[in-house]
Design brief:
This protein is mainly β and about 230 residues long. Helices cover about 5% and strands about 55% of the residues. Strands 1, 2, 3, 4, 5 and 6 form a six-stranded antiparallel sheet that branches. A six-stranded antiparallel sheet has the order 11-12-13-14-15-16. It has a four-stranded antiparallel sheet with strand order 7-8-9-10, with helices on one face. The chain is globular. The chain starts with 5 loop residues before the first strand and ends with a helix. The relative contact order is 0.09.
């Protein structure tokens, strides 16, 4: 659940002061309470430069402050932001807390504009660095959340990151990545659905098994494949 948001006349950040709208999130993260301060809000939407302040749940002390140049998000019926919602072609929350690199620590994705595919939401990804004891930006993961259709999904059981992309109405690609320690992202699976011919869907599965790619191609009538 998300605690109520309320208006503040201003907030002082360093030497910069500007009008802000502040929201508090108590249950977005397992480890941190969150305060969001964003420049502009109307009845339905907030956007603009924002600060995201993280407070340690155990000590209540400020842990770290992160910045978004455009923390664009919609308010729910209670005039509050959501957290941790990732819906393809629908709602994607301004903050996503999860273990994106599967190292056992919580990471954070912060909405930053609409720069992903088809003008969808884009995110800056910060992973927790155990040595530095703070969140640090991840260029690889940020690229995933800018180059596809919005925020990627995390499959913690299989330890996979899943992205979606498309071209027009009739070509879709689902891609899965493993995260290898000290090596970064490694693509391990692709599902391509090509219905550009109009009558059939050509489904191509590619999977990296035993150090080589295995490909399987099947064709289905379009009305049969999409009947659900």
């Amino acid at each position: 659940m998300i605690n109520s948001g309320f208006l503040l006349p201003f907030i002082l950040l360093g030497t910069i002061a500007f009008g802000q709208n502040q929201f508090e999130l108590k249950d977005a993260s397992k480890n941190y309470d969150v305060k969001i301060n964003v420049e502009n809000c109307d009845k339905e939407e907030c956007k603009g430069k924002a600060t995201i302040e993280l407070f340690d749940k155990n000590t209540s002390k400020k842990f770290q402050t992160l910045i978004s140049d455009d923390l664009n998000f919609y308010l729910n019926e209670d005039q509050k932001p959501t957290a941790n919602i990732i819906q393809l072609y629908d709602e994607q929350s301004p903050l996503i807390f999860d273990d994106f690199n599967f190292d056992g620590t919580e990471d954070i994705a912060i909405r930053n504009g609409n720069e992903s595919g088809y003008g969808g939401p884009s995110y800056d990804i910060y992973v927790f660095n155990i040595t530095k004891k703070q969140f640090v930006p991840s260029e690889e993961l940020t690229a995933l959340a800018h180059e596809n259709l919005g925020m990627f999904n995390t499959d913690s059981e299989r330890k996979r990151l899943i992205t979606y992309s498309k071209s027009g109405c009739c070509w879709h690609m689902t891609t899965e990545y493993s995260v290898l320690p000290q090596r970064g992202l490694f693509k391990v699976y692709e599902l391509e659905e090509d219905a550009t011919g109009g009558e059939n869907v050509v489904v191509t599965k590619r999977e990296f098994i035993n150090d080589k790619w295995i490909q399987n191609v099947k064709t289905y009538p379009i009305n049969e494949y999409y009947k659900d």
